[in-house]
Design brief:
By secondary structure, this protein is an alpha/beta fold. It has helices at about 5-10, 20-25, 35-40, 50-60, 60-80, 95-115, 130-140, 155-160, 170-180, 195-205, 220-225, 240-245, 255-260, 270-280, 285-290; strands spanning about 10-15, 30, 85-90, 120-125, 145-150, 165-170, 215, 235. It is about 50% helix and about 10% strand. The protein has an 8-stranded parallel barrel with strand order 1-2-3-4-5-6-7-8, surrounded by 8 helices.
Length: about 300
């Protein structure tokens, strides 16, 4: 047995890539994509036919072409996974609840137009207060959401209260921030703030019976992945899947619902004020969310006197 096989017996392994051939090779249960991964894939001559199909279908509508590109790649990926693919809403809508809802509905509509049921899609939204409220409404419409750009415990609390399907805490980006802040080349996994963040969230969810699943994401090294063995899902880039597959041995389970239920973790009552205060108290989370959820370009004023 290798580490990847052992890990798969404890957590649902997801491929974090837009490379259709990599998904076909690793045959994960699910796959996650994001705009940067798909941009890389779109520039690969192997996938030119996917790009051409999206452009032709959009008939000159640039915004629709981009959404169509995400959907066409998602459709190709779904041919190689038994479960779901995550497709991301434009990050510039992170603070726009109506805009996020409209874009998510359009993505689902494009998928359904091509015969893909919404049950096989996770819509990725930024875990801002507005994004979480959008996800809450979308979940009521049967559109399942994967909350991304998640760095703080406050974000995780709000997502669980909103009843979203899945969250993706960013282990690697949290690790990167603390490594830079501490001015060190590496942080041992036992002291890794990214690993600790996912562990805390997982324990809280299982202790208090939340149905929202936790998917560790954005890994920098296999040690981080192995430290979260037992997490509901783990989304892993192809190069790290390769390392795990080449390393023999069993993986020790680190997270379990039984251990989480024994933890002493008090439930926190959350509203918008508490959310914003708790999130603001975490400088890492505040900075990383601001980086990932850019401010949208200013809109022209409708006031003729301005």
């Amino acid at each position: 047995m290798n580490q990847l096989e052992s890990l798969r017996s404890q957590s649902l392994v997801v491929a974090d890539t837009g490379d259709i051939e990599a998904v076909a090779r690793w045959k994960p249960q699910d796959a996650t994509t994001n705009p940067s991964l798909l941009l890389t894939a779109a520039q690969d001559p192997r996938f030119r036919h996917v790009v051409d199909a999206a452009i032709q279908e959009a008939r000159g509508d640039t915004a629709l072409a981009m959404d169509g590109l995400f959907v066409h790649f998602g459709r190709e990926i779904l041919k190689h996974v038994a479960g779901r693919v995550s497709t991301e809403v434009d990050a510039r809508l992170s603070f726009d609840k109506p805009g996020s809802i409209h874009r998510a509905q359009r993505l689902i509509g494009l998928y359904e137009r091509h015969g893909v049921p919404r049950e096989r899609i996770l819509i990725k939204l930024a875990a801002t207060w507005e994004g979480i409220r959008a996800a809450e409404q979308l979940e009521r419409e049967g559109i399942h959401c994967n909350m991304t750009l998640l760095f703080s415990f406050a974000q995780a609390l709000a997502c669980a209260d909103a009843g979203v399907t899945l969250i993706s805490p960013f282990v690697g980006r949290i690790y990167d921030w603390y490594r830079a802040a501490r001015k060190v080349d590496d942080i041992p996994v036992d002291d890794d703030p990214g690993v600790a963040s996912v562990t805390k969230i997982y324990s809280y969810y299982k202790k208090h019976g939340y149905q929202t699943q936790v998917m560790g994401a954005s890994f920098r090294k296999t040690e981080q992945i192995l430290a979260l063995a037992g997490c509901d899902l783990l989304t892993i880039a192809p190069e790290l899947l390769e390392k795990l597959a080449r390393t023999p041995g069993a993986v020790e389970r680190r997270l379990s619902p039984e251990a989480a239920r024994r933890a002493s973790v008090e439930k926190i009552a959350l509203d918008e004020k508490v959310f914003r205060w708790l999130h603001n108290e975490d400088p890492m989370a505040t900075e990383k969310l601001a980086e990932g959820a850019p401010r949208p370009p200013p809109q022209p004023s409708s006031d003729p006197g301005s």
